[in-house]
Amino acid sequence: MRKDSRKTPRRKLGARAWIRVDDGFSVRPCRVVDVSEAGVRIEVDAPRDVANRFSLLLSRDAVPGRPCQVKWRRGSTIGAEFVRR
């Protein structure tokens, strides 16, 4: 079994969430696969269409959301780190 060398432990979530491109009003649905204090892994349709910087909303009308920076993309999955505004 492979050792997990992450700095912060991940917690599986499987919750529905939304992505909002910074300074935008429209949102698109996604699913949070897992989350840690440092970042998040989400699944989304057309991940190539997601901007490199976005806000993660755990409820559709959340303001302002959690700012994220994409670190990697694989298939329909995106790994992003949480960043400061």
Topology:
Blueprint: E1 11-21, E2 27-35, E3 39-43, E4 53-57, E5 66-74, E6 77-82
Antiparallel strand pairs: 1-2, 1-4, 2-3, 3-6, 4-5, 5-6
Q: How does this structure look, described?
A:
- With 85 residues, the chain is mostly beta strands.
- The chain has a single domain (11-82), classed as Thrombin, subunit H, CATH 2.40.10.
- It is 0% helix and 53% strand.
- The protein is built from no helices and six strands.
- It has strands spanning 11-21, 27-35, 39-43, 53-57, 66-74, 77-82.
- The protein has a six-stranded antiparallel beta barrel.
- The protein is globular and about 30 Å long.
- The termini are far apart.
- The mean pLDDT is 87.
Low-confidence stretches: none
CATH architecture grouping? Beta Barrel
β content, as a range?
over 45%
How many DSSP H or I helices?
Answer: 0
